[in-house]
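Minimal example, chain plus protoporphyrin IX containing FE.
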Amino acid sequence: MRQTVRLFDKPPELFKLFQPLFGPKSIQYANGLEGRTRRNTYDRAFSHEAVGRTFPVLDECADELIEKLRAMAAKGERIPLSRFCIGLAIKAILRVTVEPDSASLPDEQVAQLKSCYDLAWNEMEARLTQGEPEAGDHRVQAFNDALSHLHEFVDSTVRRRSAMKFDSDVDKTFADLAIELHAKDAEALRSDVITYMVGGFHTSGYLLLWALYYAIQHPNLADRLRAESAEVLGAAGEANMAAIGQMTFHRAFLDETMRLSCLAPFAARVSDAEVEVGGHTLPAGTPVIQALGTAGMCSEAYPEPDDFNPDRWTGQQLFEPFGFGRRKCPGYRLAYAETALWLSRLLAAFRFRLVDETYTAVSSFGLLTKPNEEVWVLAEAL
Ligand code: HEM
């Protein structure tokens, strides 16, 4: 896989199935100079410094969730963990990439966005496994309704943001950079905002969910996470990039979570000229799959690969959960920062257990791997 590191372009046909959701002009399908220009522009919003400035927002989002969970824990209510993790990630991605200063999004709006996303994403994956629906099938109407709701939401936030003036580039979010870049192309603007929004919440939301699930299954490891965050965040007084960087067991726990859950199973590349990869000559235009998930289960690199063992994360790794090279996931710093922070905050506040102690999560594989049903837990406030 590392031999493909220099390739930038992605094979558009491989991701075409998701085009109705992301939009025809999404960065997913932008190669060559166009793709590089977009990445150079947008990546400024996800630099080390830019992510460092998001901690107050990420903390506030965690505070809101913890308050809600405390109330449920006090009444002994069952908690739908997946719904809450995705809700948290939706709020955070919208405040980080679009409007940091907005009053928190109402829960009803987050719930509606989540249900539109669920419907649209499940429909895209159903097209992968069951084929395209017939014209007139109710699936088409339901998908179109969900998509127009997402479009309305994005268009109205873009309108609000377009009217703003900034004293400094530091105050600009990803959406502001996209608005400037696509001043004359509303379709590309909407496509990229949806791509970053969806790309940014379902991945981090499900990473947090899988991490909490593994923490429930391994209480001794959960205690090590608690001890590390008490030591590092306790000494730092507040979360910031330096403190998160010192939480090396959290990082290993998250990497092991992405490996074992196979969260993002693959990336892909294509070259417009003949290339040599791993001793093979590939004619121009040959798509190459980077099998991230398969690399993570390689038993030579990861002995007993089915075991959850964060202590295996030392030194050079075969598995790269965010891909390689210039086209690696733009959100990787944000994803590590937010999920490490939320994992530490949630485990410091609660001890979780499964409602059904015999429950084992069954993976639903697609472009992203998630449990095939809601994960129900109970929380005890600490
Ligand atoms: C646990 C969290 C995440 C995982 C595992 C993940 C994984 C990935 C992977 C494997 C790719 C393909 C990279 C490649 O082609 O080399 C990717 C691309 C992408 N990710 Fe992430 N991602 C995560 C979080 C995020 C976040 C927080 C954002 C929002 C900023 C984001 C936005 C994107 C976008 C827009 C692309 C496409 C970029 C392009 O086409 O140039 N991701 N991600």
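The two ends are 44 Å apart (CA to CA). The longest helix spans residues 186-217.
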